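pinned: reference chain
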Amino acid sequence: MHGMTPFETYAIFGVLGVAILGLAYAVFLRWQILKEDKGTQEMQDVWQDIKQGADAYLNRQLRTILPFIGILIIALFFSVWIVNPTPEAQEEFGANARVYIAFGRAIAFAMGAIFSLVVGQIGMRMAVEGNVRVASAARTSFGEALRIAYRAGTITGMLTDGLGLFGGTIIFIIFGKAAPDALLGFGFGGTLLALFMRVGGGIYTKAADVGADLVGKVEAGLEEDDPRNAAVVADLVGDNVGDCAGMAADIFESYEVTIVSGLILGLALVRITGDLNWIVYPLLVRGIGVLSSIVGTYLVKGAAEGSGADAMKAIFRGFLTSAGISVVLFGIVAVVYMRDVPGGWWRPFLSTAVGVLLAILIDRLTDYFTGTESPPVKEIRESADGGAATTILSGLAVGYESSVWAALVIAATIFAAILIYGNIPGFSGMEQVAFVLYSVAMTGIGMLTLTGNNVAMDSFGPIADNANGIGEMTGMTDRARQIMADLDAVGNTTKAITKGIAIGSAVIAAVSLFGSFITDVSLVDPEALINGIRVSQPRVFVGMLIGGAIPWLFSSFAIKAVSRAAGLMVTEVRRQFKIPGLMEGKVKPDYARAVSISTAAAQKELVPLAAMAVVSPIIVGLVLQVEALGGFLAGIILSGQLLAVFMANSGGAWDNAKKTIEDEPSDPGNNLGKHSERHKASVVGDTVGDPLKDTAGPALNPMIKVVNLVSVIIAPIVVQYKTGLGVTGWLVVLVLLAAFVWAIWQSKRKAPELTDVKTDAAAVAS
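pinned: its structure tokens
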């Protein structure tokens, strides 16, 4: 098959079997979770409100994005007709290569989008199924509550692992050495859906959260999830659509993109050396990752009595177990399968092992800057004694510093990749570069080996948060509430850790795609980038400046969207607080109206922000040409990484500082505990951090990769027009500029005032 040896053929089908095993494990966990007790009828009533709101949002989102997806399927189909098929495509399919690749890329795009959607939607729905069961288990056992919350999150993790590996392997089985041409569509589909779900989920959840906190906690002095607050259900729904659906889709597309870049760069080495091992090895590594995640996630358990520290230790122990199994199996596969490739088996092994180490380092680094027991969070907690201003200043400083260390860790990782593959005898300078870029790609694949663990850690957060909310809204016992509060605090840290890993993987994936960009351009025109991408060239520097600015513009619009929607939410919650009997608990708030406000605000922003990411690299490439497009990518990777880490970690640190203040014994006279002035200051800091850590920061990950994938797809087209665009080309540029201006204008418009809202969440879906 495709020139592979019998061993390689069996191994690839074995990888496909492992992908199916990962999906079967998710089904098994689902069966386990659904057997658990759902608690009292009162708990189930709150749960039903959350479930209906989540379904309403997802259904509305699907209708919003489907037309955009349809347009891009057509565009990707015709993108293949502008450039000649690669030699590998011609070798696989002969005279019909163009037709096969066109259909393959378009269908793979649809498949990537569907898989990303499935991961987000099913994973989120299982998180909703898990939250009420965690609340019920917390009445009797800390260990049971931890087990249910983590395994419910693991379902999403294994869907991410299984579907990502299944899709990439199936495409390779069908297309062989021509697989990278189709995989570009697969990666783009997953990445674009992740961008939609990240942006929409982030705006939704923070509009509700900010509105609920500012009016409910600061103005009215209510508890976090007081049932009299109309925004509470929307907030609990938002935790799921943002941190489950959004993050799952985000990491899924990183998982896809690293496969895409790994196979593209592996194919470059196949051309140089003639060894097919370079494109089979990444798939074998991914199969190992699924197996190790199954073992590691199943081992996460806690004692009947425990604390947040015990939960964090159990989760990290499972993470390290998966990491250890992975590294050992990497070594075995490398020794057996990669021993005869140029440079020896130890180089690909070290590249993937360094990726696992990078994931662990980012895990620990993020935990240091955002964990409840860490010095930075304690510093913010102490600064809250001076009021909201000092709280915000302290959190900003933590975010800025964390960006520096995260950048240095990623830089050290890339430098390690250079050292590993930087000196292989018998190859020219450009060929050496290809080896180094492959090493970077393998680092990204190694980093996301533990995707199942990473997504489980992330989904654990909103599941614990929702359980805590259900507990508060139904008046559960103090012991049960403390168990859920401990798990909720751990969930804040695990969410921050996963965001750190997602950002790190985004940068590594983007650098790998950057290498793919250079490889693909050189394949079409060997002279185009023969001198590299030179920042000393004014045109390239212009491209880099524009690229560096795009993440800031994107973040600005995302945060403004939250601000506008939160303003509507604040007005609505204040209005409902004036309803006679509501504050006395005699009248139930209109939760559906708050859900509608968040839903409408989120949908308004989806297409404009996605259009900005898709259109900007095409404009830069057509107007400034391919070398400047390379500068544009460099700018967006550097700027986006620093900004994303800053926003994610400052927001996470503010959030956990607030949690630690809430856990102190309440004594407003000494400025301690809930309802103290220190607590109010921390709530303001958390409110500022919310749209940073849960909307703009996470949305930068898929945005960076959307831009990179679009650039890789259009680069061969741009090269063909290096002598001039002509009238048609400039007309295309004008249309794209108009689309970019429309996206800016649309993002600046106010969210619609909801004057006629249906009164049940299920009706919102229509």
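why pinned: The two ends are 49 Å apart (CA to CA). Residues 754-766 have pLDDT under 50 and may be disordered.
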